[in-house]
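This entry is set out below.
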Amino acid sequence: MLKGIPQILSPELLKVLCEMGHSDRIVLSDGNFPAETMGKNSIVIRCDGHNIPDLLDAILTVFPLDTYIDKPVNLMEVVPGDHVETPIWDTYKEIVKKHDSRGAEAVGNIERFAFYEEAKTAYAIIATGEKALYGNIMLQKGVVV
């Protein structure tokens, strides 16, 4: 164990976060996301039993968001006609605000299939037990100054 590191961050996840460089992306995927399929060229880390808000909050304590782009955090857009509420997005925005001065302004949306294509090029995908529909979130790493 280490001091000051959230316990939810496993040694495997910490190693991946440390290995990532500027502009690398990581996906925190909900339980319905095809993590293994999308992650064929990425590192897939299983965090079953954990939800995304807890992981997101812990990750952002050690992970700088990219300041060279407007939207270093992206959510998967709801498919038009899919009548799904996404209250978890407000939770994500509050967590981002806690760790980044841009707050909700740092959060964008990516169309569902474009999100899948972006996920295929992510450095890593964290497969969670998150039950919220459209709970997927992608982070782009910045630099530590």
Observations:
- The radius of gyration is 14 Å.
- The domain at 11-140 is CATH 3.40.1650.10 (RbsD-like fold).
- The mean pLDDT is 97.
